[in-house]
C-alpha cells in the first residue's frame, strides 16, 4: 500500500521541475483553483486505516471481522452470497433477495462462530452410559448359559453358535455403517425448517446439486438413537423365552447395534484423550456388575428371564440420554450449512475451471471414493485389525476357559473359583480406567511402549499359569492378566486414530471391532476343539502361543506417527 503524502500549501503542489513554466496542465489549473479557496496554512491528514493485523479471523469462521476507523463496532464481510460461478449474470449483479453484504458483528454472532464442542460433558457422560449398558448385556451370557441349556435343551454346539450370531451381527453392522451414516446424515441445505434426513437413499449427487449435503452431527445423532432402540430389543427377545432361533436373532441384533454404537469410539478418541479409556473401562465394569446382579437375583428364586426385563429400564434411560444430549444444536446446524455452501461453491468453481459445462448441458455426477474402500486399502488398517483379532481371541479364551482349567488341573474349590472371571473383568476395568487417566500425559511413542510392556507382562502371567501348580496363584495371575489386558484395546484404538486418516475413522473403528468379535468367536472354537482332543492342560499352551504372537506383531508397529498417505485426508 502506498502511503498518502500530506499536502501543506499551494507552493508544495506547484513545486517541481516544471514549476517555472507559464503554461500549466489543465489538471494542475483545476487543482490551483480549488486550493486558492482554502486558507493557506491548512493541513490535510491522511485517513487512518486499520492495518490487517487487527483482523479477527479463525479457520472455523464463516465471516471476517475488520475494525472500522473511528468506530468501536466491527464490519463483517460475508464470504457466501447467492452469486453462482456458473450464473449468466455478471459478478456485479445485485440479488434483491440477498442480505446486505455487510453487517455489524454482535455478541450473538460471535457465539455462533466460536468452534467449541457443544454439550461435551453431557455427551461424554451419555456415551459412557451407553458403553456401560453394552457391557451389561454382554457380560451376563456366562451366568445364564446353564439355565438356557437346561430349559431349551441346548448342546455345546448350539451354545457356541450364539457367539457365531454375535460375529454375524458385527460384520453386517461393519459393512452397513457407512451407508447408514450417509443416508441419515443427508439434509436439505436451503430448507428454512429443521433438517431431516433425505428420503431418497443411495442417490448419486450431481456437481450442481447444491440442495442436499451431509452432516456428521446429524448422522451421529440418528444412528446412536436408532442403535440404542435396536439394542433394547435384545432384552425383550431374551426375556420372551421364545426358543433358540429367537435367542440367536437377539444376539445378532445386539452385536449389530453395538457395532453402530462403536462409532462413538471415534467421537471419544477425537475428543479428550482420556475419554476412550474411561468409556471402555465402564464397559468392562458393566460386564463385571451384571453377572453379580443376575446371580443374586437367581439365588433369591426369581426366574432368570426377569433379569432381562429389568434391564429394559437401563435401556430406556440409555435411549433418553442419547436423544437429549446428541441432538444437534443451533450452532452445529449453522456450521454444517455454512460448510455445505462453502463446499458447493468450491466444487462448482473447480468444475468450471477444469472446463466443465454449465447446468444447461446436463448434470455431471461426481465420483466419491468410499471410506470403506479407503480403509481396506490401508496397510495399517489390516495391521491393527489383525492385532485386535488376536487380542480378543486371547481375552475370550482366557476368561472363558480359566474356571474349567483350574477345576480340572489345579483342584480348585468349586464354591469360590467362579469369582475368577469377575476378577479378570475387574482387573480389566481398573486397567482401562488407569489407562484413560494416563493417556493425556503420554506421547504416541510412550503409549506404544506401555502397551508393549503390558503384553510382555501378560506373557509372564500366562507362563505362571502354565508352570506354577497352585490354584490361588493361578487365580491371582488371571486377575493380573485382566489388569494388564485392560489398556491394550483402548490403546490400540487410540493409536489407530493417530495413524489412520480422519476420513476413515468411523469405518476403521467398526472394522477393528468386527475383527475383534471374529477373534472372540474363532479362538474359543479352536480352544474347545484342542481341549477336546488334548485335554484341559493344552489351554495354557494355546494362551501362551497367542500372547507371544501378539508381542511379536506389536513390535513391528511404528513408534512414531507415520506420514499420511497422499491423496487421503
TrEMBL record:
Compositional bias of kind Low complexity: 79-91
Region (Disordered): 1-24, 74-106
Membrane topology designation: Multi-pass membrane protein
Localization per Swiss-Prot or TrEMBL: Endomembrane system
Keyword Glycoprotein part of the UniProt annotation: no
Pfam families in the cross-refs: MFS_1
Cellular component aspect of the GO annotation: membrane
Chain intervals with Basic and acidic residues compositional bias: 9-24
Chain segments annotated as transmembrane: 128-148, 160-181, 221-240, 246-268, 275-298, 304-326, 417-437, 449-468, 475-497, 503-527, 539-557
Highest taxon in the source lineage: Eukaryota
Molecular function as annotated in GO: transmembrane transporter activity
This protein's UniProt keywords: Membrane, Transmembrane, Transmembrane helix, Transport
Family in the record: Belongs to the major facilitator superfamily.
UniProt cross-references to PANTHER family, sorted A to Z: BYPASS OF STOP CODON PROTEIN 6
Name of the protein this chain belongs to: Major facilitator superfamily (MFS) profile domain-containing protein
Organism annotation: Hypholoma sublateritium (strain FD-334 SS-4)
Amino acid at each position: 500500500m502506498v502511503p498518502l503524502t500530506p499536502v501543506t500549501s499551494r507552493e508544495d503542489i506547484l513545486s517541481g521541475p516544471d514549476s517555472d513554466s507559464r503554461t500549466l496542465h489543465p489538471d494542475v489549473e483545476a487543482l490551483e483553483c480549488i486550493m486558492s479557496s482554502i486558507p493557506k496554512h491548512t493541513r490535510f491528514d491522511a485517513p487512518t486505516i486499520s492495518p490487517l493485523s487487527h483482523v479477527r479471523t479463525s479457520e472455523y469462521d464463516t465471516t471476517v471481522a475488520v475494525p472500522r476507523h473511528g468506530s468501536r463496532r466491527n464490519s463483517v464481510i460475508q464470504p457466501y452470497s447467492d452469486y453462482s460461478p456458473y450464473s449468466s449474470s455478471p459478478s456485479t449483479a445485485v440479488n434483491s433477495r440477498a442480505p446486505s453484504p455487510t453487517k455489524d458483528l454482535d455478541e450473538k454472532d460471535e457465539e455462533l462462530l466460536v468452534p467449541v464442542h457443544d454439550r461435551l460433558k453431557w455427551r461424554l457422560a451419555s456415551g459412557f452410559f451407553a458403553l456401560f449398558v453394552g457391557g451389561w448385556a454382554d457380560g451376563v451370557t456366562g451366568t445364564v448359559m446353564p439355565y438356557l441349556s437346561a430349559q431349551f435343551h441346548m448342546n455345546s454346539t448350539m451354545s457356541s453358535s450364539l457367539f457365531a450370531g454375535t460375529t454375524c451381527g458385527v460384520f453386517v453392522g461393519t459393512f452397513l455403517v457407512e451407508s447408514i451414516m450417509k443416508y441419515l446424515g443427508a439434509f436439505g441445505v436451503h430448507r428454512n425448517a429443521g433438517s431431516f434426513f433425505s428420503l431418497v437413499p443411495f442417490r448419486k449427487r450431481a456437481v450442481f446439486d447444491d440442495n442436499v449435503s451431509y452432516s456428521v452431527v446429524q448422522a451421529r445423532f440418528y444412528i446412536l438413537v436408532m442403535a440404542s432402540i435396536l439394542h433394547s430389543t435384545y432384552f425383550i427377545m431374551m426375556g420372551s423365552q421364545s426358543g433358540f432361533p429367537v435367542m440367536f436373532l437377539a444376539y445378532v441384533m445386539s452385536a449389530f447395534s453395538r457395532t453402530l454404537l462403536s462409532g462413538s469410539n471415534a467421537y471419544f478418541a477425537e475428543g479428550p484423550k482420556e475419554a476412550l479409556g474411561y468409556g471402555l473401562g465402564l464397559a468392562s465394569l458393566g460386564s463385571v456388575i451384571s453377572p453379580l446382579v443376575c446371580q443374586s437375583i437367581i439365588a433369591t428364586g426369581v426366574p432368570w428371564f426377569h433379569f432381562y426385563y429389568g434391564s429394559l429400564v437401563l435401556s430406556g434411560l440409555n435411549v433418553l440420554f442419547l436423544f437429549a444430549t446428541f441432538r444437534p444444536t443451533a450452532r452445529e446446524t449453522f456450521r454444517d450449512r455454512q460448510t455445505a455452501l462453502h463446499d458447493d461453491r468450491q466444487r462448482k468453481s473447480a468444475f468450471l475451471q477444469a472446463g466443465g459445462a454449465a447446468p444447461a448441458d446436463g448434470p455431471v455426477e461426481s465420483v466419491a471414493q468410499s471410506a470403506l474402500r479407503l480403509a481396506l486399502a490401508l496397510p495399517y488398517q489390516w495391521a491393527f485389525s489383525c492385532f485386535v483379532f488376536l487380542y480378543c481371541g486371547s481375552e475370550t479364551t482366557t476368561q472363558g476357559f480359566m474356571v474349567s482349567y483350574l477345576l480340572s488341573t489345579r483342584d480348585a474349590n468349586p464354591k469360590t473359583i467362579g469369582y475368577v472371571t469377575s476378577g479378570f473383568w475387574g482387573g480389566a476395568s481398573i486397567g482401562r480406567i488407569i489407562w484413560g487417566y494416563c493417556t493425556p500425559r503420554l506421547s504416541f511413542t510412550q503409549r506404544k511402549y506401555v502397551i508393549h510392556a503390558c503384553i510382555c507382562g501378560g506373557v509372564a502371567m500366562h507362563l505362571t499359569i502354565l508352570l506354577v501348580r497352585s490354584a490361588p496363584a493361578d487365580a491371582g495371575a488371571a486377575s493380573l492378566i485382566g489388569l494388564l489386558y485392560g489398556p491394550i484395546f483402548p490403546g490400540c484404538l487410540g493409536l489407530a486414530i493417530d495413524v489412520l486418516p480422519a476420513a476413515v475413522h468411523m469405518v476403521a473403528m467398526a472394522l477393528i471391532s468386527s475383527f475383534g468379535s471374529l477373534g472372540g468367536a474363532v479362538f474359543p472354537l479352536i480352544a474347545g476343539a484342542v481341549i477336546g482332543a488334548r485335554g484341559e492342560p493344552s489351554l495354557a499352551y494355546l494362551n501362551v502361543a497367542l500372547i507371544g504372537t501378539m508381542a511379536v506383531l506389536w513390535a513391528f508397529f511404528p513408534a512414531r506417527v507415520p506420514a499420511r498417505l497422499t491423496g487421503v485426508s
